[in-house]
């Protein structure tokens, strides 16, 4: 799943391609918007909010998109290349005289009145890469449900906006805490939020998530995607399980991240832990 830094980068690319330029093509390939025509209007802003993108268009219209698991944005020079394939995966095309942007496999594509943006992003907690980032407020939200597993609390965008599965797994390793540890037993919530922001900020200007400081292939993560391989810190085999509700693939080092009860997670799925993106 694209995480906050990926969406931040997408917003920067779209901003450079679209802002202050008049749209010459608006091709929405979703049924609800199939007849919409916004040509002749200018794009005013492209704003990332957690994992959401808000593209504000002249006339009080906001295009709201979310990449979820598989969505991607492509930016190319207008007329220089055919649209990317497979064509059936295209969900929208926006173009001006200079640039064309294409949204692929995008599950959320909707138009809103600008005044209604809060209906889709108003639930979000402080944005890790936003100008209004507030670490103490994010920590307060994390601590509000002390028995919730820390790994699930980090994914809940109502607490802090921008963390996906890669960062929540790596954060747990860096803090030396098993992902199923209750928030109340996971240490200072403020330390979690400060570290989370540092990780995303360190990656917002490069492709790919690097949490170890080593950009070489196979060495970018401490535990994510490394099941069965030795921990880079202690040599213990990295473990993997599907945990949470909904379940997410989780990686951890059993030595560097000891269980709070001395056991293993097994197939536990703590209840009451749904979260919003």
From TrEMBL:
Substrates-to-products reaction catalysed? 2'-deoxyribonucleotide-(2'-deoxyribose 5'-phosphate)-2'-deoxyribonucleotide-DNA = a 3'-end 2'-deoxyribonucleotide-(2,3-dehydro-2,3-deoxyribose 5'-phosphate)-DNA + a 5'-end 5'-phospho-2'-deoxyribonucleoside-DNA + H(+)
Which keywords has UniProt assigned to this entry?
Answer: DNA damage, DNA repair, DNA-binding, Endonuclease, Glycosidase, Hydrolase, Lyase, Metal-binding, Multifunctional enzyme, Nuclease, Zinc, Zinc-finger
Record flagged with keyword Signal: no
Q: Which SMART domains match?
A: Fapy_DNA_glyco (SM00898), H2TH (SM01232)
E.C. number: 4.2.99.18
Similarity-based family: Belongs to the FPG family.
Q: Which Gene3D superfamilies match?
A: 1.10.8.50, MutM-like, N-terminal
Q: Which GO terms describe its molecular function?
A: class I DNA-(apurinic or apyrimidinic site) endonuclease activity; damaged DNA binding; oxidized pyrimidine nucleobase lesion DNA N-glycosylase activity; zinc ion binding
| Short name of one Pfam family | H2TH
- FPG-type domain location, by residue? 222-258
Q: What is this protein called?
A: DNA-(apurinic or apyrimidinic site) lyase
Where in this chain does the record put each Formamidopyrimidine-DNA glycosylase catalytic domain? Answer: 2-130
One BP term from GO? base-excision repair
Q: Where is this region: Disordered?
A: 255-277
Q: Which PANTHER family match?
A: ENDONUCLEASE 8
Q: Determine if DNA-binding is one of this entry's keywords.
A: yes
């Amino acid at each position: 799943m694209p995480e906050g830094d990926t969406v931040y980068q997408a917003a920067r690319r779209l901003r450079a391609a679209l802002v202050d330029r008049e749209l010459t093509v608006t091709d929405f390939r979703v049924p609800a918007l199939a007849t919409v025509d916004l040509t002749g209007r200018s794009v005013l802003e492209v704003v990332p909010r957690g994992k959401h993108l808000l593209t504000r268009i002249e006339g009080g219209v906001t295009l709201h998109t979310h990449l979820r698991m598989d969505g991607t944005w492509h930016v190319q020079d207008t007329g220089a290349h055919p649209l990317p394939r497979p064509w059936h995966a295209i969900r929208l095309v926006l173009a001006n005289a200079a640039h064309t942007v294409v949204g692929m496999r995008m599950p959320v594509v909707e138009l809103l009145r600008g005044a209604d943006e809060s209906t889709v992003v108003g639930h979000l907690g402080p944005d890790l890469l936003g100008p209004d980032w507030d670490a103490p407020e994010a920590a307060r939200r994390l601590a509000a449900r002390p028995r919730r597993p820390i790994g699930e609390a980090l994914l809940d965008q109502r607490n802090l906006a921008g963390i996906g599965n890669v960062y929540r797994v790596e954060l747990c390793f860096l803090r030396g805490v098993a992902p199923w540890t209750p928030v109340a037993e996971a240490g200072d919530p403020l330390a979690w939020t400060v570290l989370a922001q540092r990780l995303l900020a360190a990656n917002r200007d490069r492709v790919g998530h690097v949490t170890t400081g080593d950009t070489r292939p196979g060495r970018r993560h401490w535990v994510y995607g490394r099941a069965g391989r030795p921990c880079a810190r202690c040599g213990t085999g990295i473990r993997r399980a599907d945990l949470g509700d909904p379940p997410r693939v989780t990686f951890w080092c059993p030595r560097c991240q000891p269980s709070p009860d001395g056991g293993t997670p097994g197939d536990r799925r703590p209840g009451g832990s749904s979260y919003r993106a």
